[in-house]
């Protein structure tokens, strides 16, 4: 269980992140998500900088390519010392296996292998969209469960899914298999482009092992206050 909500640092520049982090106490160790937006601007240096500040890193680059390319990319990525990283489950079973292999090879000396989890169906996808646009005949839940089972068989540590799917995923995998859930919105917040949204409190009840929260915190007038409120709700201590 990851007790701290993971904050999605969806910013375009390091200086924007610095301004944002200045609103938190300097000794507060955060779990942050580095995604494509900032990584494509700043590269691995942003990961090093955040780590030096004492934060844990979820590097969410959602790798999706042929197995050999993903294996070699993961080998390099492993050296960055991140805690969790991602691939797209749609890349296939062999690709997922090779992602894990690459991470193991890249950390041969340190033995500090990052966890790798597979994105199932994005939380911005509805069942209707999935069936129409991906020509998938199954229900959204069936698709997510299928990817979760495949990710587990491939040796991955978990999946990215909506908290709505977490309980069933645990039933077909294990309680420890990580269900990391974005699409988190406090009661009454706007949903933005997210389709499968859950409150922090409900996400915990439904069996999520970790939550990722971006805009409700990053766009707040007082991000630290909202972060604390979400953390309390997530830990189910306010009811
Ligand atoms: O299915 C997915 C996979 C990843 N994400 C990422 O999580 C955050 C959510 O940000 P919000 O502002 O809280 O909506 C964002 O970085 C996405 O890239 C996701 O939302 N859904």
TrEMBL record:
Binding-site positions, substrate: 10, 33, 60-69, 123, 185, 194, 214-215
Catalysed reaction, written as an equation: orotidine 5'-phosphate + H(+) = UMP + CO2
Keyword Hydrolase tagged: no
Domain (Orotidine 5'-phosphate decarboxylase): residue spans on this chain: 4-230
A molecular function GO annotation: orotidine-5'-phosphate decarboxylase activity
Active site: 60, 62, 65
EC number: 4.1.1.23
Annotated InterPro entries: Aldolase_TIM, OMPdecase, OMPdecase_AS, OMPdecase_bac, OMPdeCOase_dom, RibuloseP-bd_barrel
SUPFAM superfamilies assigned: Ribulose-phoshate binding barrel
The protein's annotated pathway: Pyrimidine metabolism; UMP biosynthesis via de novo pathway; UMP from orotate: step 2/2
Protein's job: Catalyzes the decarboxylation of orotidine 5'-monophosphate (OMP) to uridine 5'-monophosphate (UMP).
Oligomer and partners: Homodimer.
Family designation: Belongs to the OMP decarboxylase family. Type 1 subfamily.
Name of this protein: Orotidine 5'-phosphate decarboxylase
């Amino acid at each position: 269980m990851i007790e701290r909500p993971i904050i999605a640092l969806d910013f375009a520049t390091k200086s924007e992140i610095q301004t944002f982090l200045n609103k938190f106490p300097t000794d507060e160790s955060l779990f942050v998500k580095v995604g494509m937006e900032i990584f494509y601007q700043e590269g691995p240096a942003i990961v090093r900088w955040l780590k030096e500040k004492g934060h844990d890193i979820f590097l969410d680059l959602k790798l999706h390519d042929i197995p050999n390319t993903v294996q070699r990319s993961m080998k390099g990525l492993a050296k960055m010392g991140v805690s969790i990283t991602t691939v797209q489950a749609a890349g296939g079973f062999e690709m997922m296996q090779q992602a894990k292999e690459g991470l193991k090879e890249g950390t041969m000396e340190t033995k500090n292998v990052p966890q790798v989890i597979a994105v199932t169906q994005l939380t911005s996808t509805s069942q209707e969209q999935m069936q129409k646009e991906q020509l998938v005949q199954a229900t959204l839940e069936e698709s997510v469960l299928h990817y979760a089972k495949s990710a587990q068989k491939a040796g991955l540590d978990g999946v990215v899914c909506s908290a709505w799917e977490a309980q069933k995923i645990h039933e077909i995998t294990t309680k420890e298999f990580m269900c990391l859930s974005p699409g988190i919105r406090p009661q009454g917040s706007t949903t933005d482009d997210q389709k499968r949204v859950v409150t922090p409190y409900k996400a915990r009840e439904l069996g999520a092992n970790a939550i990722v929260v971006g805009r409700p915190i990053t766009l707040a007038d007082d991000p630290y206050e909202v972060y604390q409120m979400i953390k309390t709700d997530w830990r189910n201590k306010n009811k």
